[in-house]
């Protein structure tokens, strides 16, 4: 089955929003999305305002059968880093993207449409040097995201300059993370509640002797 994935068209707004109502993401969609999708994209990989809005079409099908909504993750903008916040907001926004909604019409599931949407979003993100993708999902979808190269956990951690950011989600959801750049890695660290993302920003690497919650170096 040939699936065409691309930026949302104006004529498909209603169908796109109806599809996103089916999403099982625990992250929630932003308020005012109806207005956001009418905006021109700010900077790539954005397609509409600050967000990436993609839709999937099948040949001879008049409306989209799949939808994806992605944007800068809230944790990249709302973290509590004291005086570092203003300095890190820009680099973190450029380095990370979060999939807030991914949905396929019920009658077309199991045909690779969600996979095509996710791959297109990652391709567009990589093209702008985005380094990490995150998303929140229901536990039963863990195997799907793992096949797509994501690591799923209840408490992954992102190493940042001078601190570490614990990614949380409402129960029973899970967080999935995927490096989009070879310098970004998922590193097991003794004592950490989950995998630790290293190399997201310059200076955010760990020696093999690192222990979570300490300053041990090799």
Task: Describe the overall structure.
- Pfam families: Acetyltransf_7 (PF13508).
- InterPro entries: Acetyltransferase_Eis, Acyl_CoA_acyltransferase, GNAT_dom.
- This is GNAT family N-acetyltransferase.
- Keywords: Plasmid.
- The protein has 218 residues and is α+β, with helices and mostly antiparallel strands.
- It has a single domain, classed as Gcn5-related N-acetyltransferase (GNAT) (Aminopeptidase, 3-Layer(aba) Sandwich).
- Helix content is 22%, strand content 26%.
- The chain has 6 helices and 11 strands.
- The strands form 2 sheets. A 7-stranded mixed β-sheet has the order 1-2-3-4-5-9-6, with helices on both faces.
Task: Give the helices and strands, then pairings.
Elements: E1 3-7, H1 13-20, H2 33-36, E2 52-58, E3 66-71, H3 74-78, H4 85-95, E4 96-104, H5 113-127, E5 132-137, H6 142-147, E6 151-153, E7 157-160, E8 163-166, E9 174-179, E10 185-187, E11 196-198
Task: List the defining traits of the structure above.
218 residues; seven-stranded mixed beta sheet; 6 helices; globular; Acyl_CoA_acyltransferase; Acetyltransferase_Eis
Terminal CA distance reads 52 Å
Q: Domains counted in the coordinates: how many?
A: 1
Name the beta content range.
25-35%
Structural class: alpha+beta
Kindly report the average pLDDT value: 89
Following the backbone from N to C, one meets helices and strands in this order, namely EHHEEHHEHEHEEEEEE
CATH architecture: 3-Layer(aba) Sandwich
Amount of helix: 10-25%
* Number of alpha- plus pi-helical segments: 6
Largest sheet: 7 strands, mixed
- Assign the CATH class: Alpha Beta
CATH superfamily: Gcn5-related N-acetyltransferase (GNAT)
Organism: Streptomyces zhihengii
InterPro entries: Acetyltransferase_Eis, Acyl_CoA_acyltransferase, GNAT_dom
Protein name: GNAT family N-acetyltransferase
Keywords: Plasmid
